């Protein structure tokens, strides 16, 4: 019976651990997504990854897009099965280049945990984006032709021009162009990313002839543990402090060094960035959730001071218990540990 109860206890603890882990992961995903949606942070990510930190993409040039993608693969019985896929954040970039408007779609995927199929996931998102653009082009052509016919404003030349067989089949005309889609994955973990960084990394293809026919897809990754401090310093937004803190979150000595070296910026971290730091590292930072900026240096000092006080209190309670077992009266115990008699009696469970 005791063995059975022991197994049940272990199972219960496993369930509790799993639920708590999922809760923390969901919280981290929500907080990081909200953070990356900020146009300043979003622009900073792609300025770093594409332009090495140069401020080419301006926040005001970005427009948020609906990140929902719908795939329609065929089922085993030939039926069409709708499946929804969700990007974390996607924005459309528009800028004037050489007298023409340049468009690029930027997508960000936030990961609090390592995803070992990230190459497939991001490849699917980009493919769905291009498929969606082809479909939108086809709809646009049909709509425009219908409008012109209804309004009677179609010229004789336009009336004679009909889509070629290939254009009709694809819905994509020969003059049409796709908008580039670039997806960057931001890993908010403190450990090194050990997952595959390309589609081919997920395969084992020994035949060089087969390999030569394969198209690869690379994961564009930002991971603090695999970045030098100099690289992280290229970020211009609060993402710099977030990445630095996460990188050294398990190294107290180096974290103190980083906080001291960048004290001015860490004393004025925007709250959403502080929320990311706390959700990812579980550092125990204490700050007012209503504040727009957080003094992380002060929060760390207060956290460490409280930790020291908690440690001293624990030692005092343990000492009081041992002295009581040795037969000392509560007045002498209180004097020895440096706490009031009433406090010591409370620790020992004695009547006040």
Q: What does this entry look like structurally?
A:
The chain is of the alpha/beta class. It has 2 domains: 24-235, no CATH class; 312-352. Helices cover 52% and strands 13% of the residues. The protein has 14 helices and 9 strands. Strands 1-4-5-6-7 form a 5-stranded mixed β-sheet, sandwiched between helices. A hairpin with a 2-residue loop joins strand 4 and strand 5 (100-111). Helix 8 (239-247) packs parallel to helix 11. The two termini are 41 Å apart. Mean pLDDT is 83; it is low at 15-20 and 74-79.
SSE topology sketch:
Elements: H1 2-36, H2 39-51, E1 62-64, E2 68-71, E3 83-86, E4 89-97, E5 100-111, H3 118-151, H4 156-160, H5 165-170, E6 181-187, H6 208-212, E7 220-222, H7 229-232, H8 239-247, H9 252-261, H10 263-266, E8 269-270, H11 271-281, E9 293-294, H12 296-325, H13 330-337, H14 341-348
Parallel strand pairs: 5-6, 6-7
Antiparallel strand pairs: 1-4, 2-3, 4-5, 8-9
User: How many strands?
Assistant: 9
Can you give the mean pLDDT? 83
Helix fraction bin: 40-55%
| Beginning-to-end CA distance, first to last residue | 41 Å
Please report the number of helical segments: 14
Low-confidence stretches: 15-20, 74-79
Structural class based on helices, strands and sheet pairing: alpha/beta
The largest sheet, given as strand count, sense and whether it forms a barrel, is: 5 strands, mixed
What is the strand content? Answer: 5-15%
Radius of gyration in whole Å, from Cα?
29 Å
Strand order of the largest sheet: 1-4-5-6-7
Topology as a string of helices (H) and strands (E): HHEEEEEHHHEHEHHHHEHEHHH
Instruction: Give the CA-based shape.
Output: elongated
């Amino acid at each position: 019976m005791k063995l059975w109860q022991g197994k049940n206890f272990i199972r219960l603890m496993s369930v509790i651990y799993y639920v708590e882990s999922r809760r923390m992961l969901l919280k981290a995903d929500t907080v990081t997504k909200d953070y990356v949606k900020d146009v300043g942070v979003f622009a900073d990510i792609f300025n770093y990854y594409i332009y090495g930190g140069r401020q080419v993409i301006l926040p005001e040039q970005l427009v948020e897009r609906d990140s929902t993608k719908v795939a329609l693969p065929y089922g085993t019985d030939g039926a069409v099965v709708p499946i929804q896929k969700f990007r974390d954040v996607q924005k459309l970039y528009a800028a004037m280049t050489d007298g023409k408007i340049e468009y690029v779609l930027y997508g960000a995927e936030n990961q609090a945990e390592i995803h070992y199929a990230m190459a497939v996931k991001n490849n699917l998102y980009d493919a769905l984006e291009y498929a969606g653009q082809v479909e939108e082009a086809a709809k646009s052509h049909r709509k425009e032709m219908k409008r012109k016919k209804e309004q009677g404003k179609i010229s004789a030349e336009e009336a004679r021009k009909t889509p070629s067989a290939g254009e009709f089949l694809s819905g994509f005309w020969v003059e049409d162009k796709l908008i580039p889609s670039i997806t960057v994955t931001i890993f908010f973990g403190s450990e090194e990313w050990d997952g595959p960084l390309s589609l081919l990394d997920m395969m084992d293809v020994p035949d060089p002839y087969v390999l030569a026919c394969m198209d690869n897809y690379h994961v564009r990754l930002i991971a603090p543990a695999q970045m030098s401090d100099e690289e992280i310093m290229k970020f211009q937004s609060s993402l710099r402090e977030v990445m630095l803190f996460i990188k050294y979150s398990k190294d107290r000595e180096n974290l103190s060094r980083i906080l001291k070296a960048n004290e001015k910026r860490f004393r004025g971290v925007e709250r959403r960035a502080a929320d990311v730091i706390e959700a990812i590292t579980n550092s125990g930072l204490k700050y007012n959730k209503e504040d727009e900026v957080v003094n992380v240096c002060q929060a760390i000092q207060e956290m460490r001071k409280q930790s020291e006080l908690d440690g001293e209190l624990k030692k005092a309670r343990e000492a009081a218990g041992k002295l009581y077992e040795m037969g000392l009266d509560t007045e002498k115990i209180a004097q020895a540990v440096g706490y009031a008699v009433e406090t010591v009696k409370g620790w020992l469970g004695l009547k006040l």
